Amino acid sequence: MTLLIHDANVLIDLIDIDLLDVALGLPFNMVTTDLVRREIEDPKQAHALETCIKKRKIAVIGSTIQEMSAISDCMNALPSLSLADSSVLYHAAVQKGVVITGDGQLRKAAAARHLEVHGTPWILSQLVATEGIDPACAIEKMESLLGINSRLPYKECRKLQDIWRLQLPTKTIRRRGRDV
To answer: Distance between CA 170 and CA 162 in Å, rounded?
Structure first.
């Protein structure tokens, strides 16, 4: 089963649009790192993540002292990455996992290491493809995301919404808040 290693920003996005629990039900092995877990400080967000950890929907990769040294080396080589970001990059490389992030610098670093990288829009696409949510819900959740996360790839998000609109029954097609 494909291993997805989550960075904090995608977890936060999913919590903020109330889809974390649903997204962690996708047919992947979902993990994050101990350093990412500590990075989520907002009480509501931390509680949502801890609930999913307790339900065993997402596992937490602990870093040994030797791994922490390698993660620190990674961070020193890539000063634009935080320690938590470096832990995601390190563990994805070691475990041949897919990096799940919306952070531009982490995306670039992962791509440079030939690691597969995806973000929140991809997660929503996977939810629609596996019928975890319907296209109408995906459109609504993407709209919410665009309102709270200005770092999302706007054109990609709008393109996905247009694709999902084509999947709607004719009577329920909506165009960015207006009935069509």
So the answer is: 14
CB 39 within 8 A of CB 10: no
The 10s digit of each residue's pLDDT in 121-165 is 999 999 999 999 999 999 999 999 999 998 999 999 999 999 999
Q: What is the 3-state secondary structure (H, E, C) of 8-47?
A: HHHHHHHHHCCCHHHHCCCCCEEEEEHHHHHHCCCHHHHH
Same domain for 107 and 149? Answer: no
Q: Which domain holds residue 130?
A: 121-179
Give me the count of residues in the chain.
Answer: 180
Clarify whether residues 165 and 148 are in a common domain. yes
**Nearest-CA neighbor of 100 among 4, 22, 29?**
4
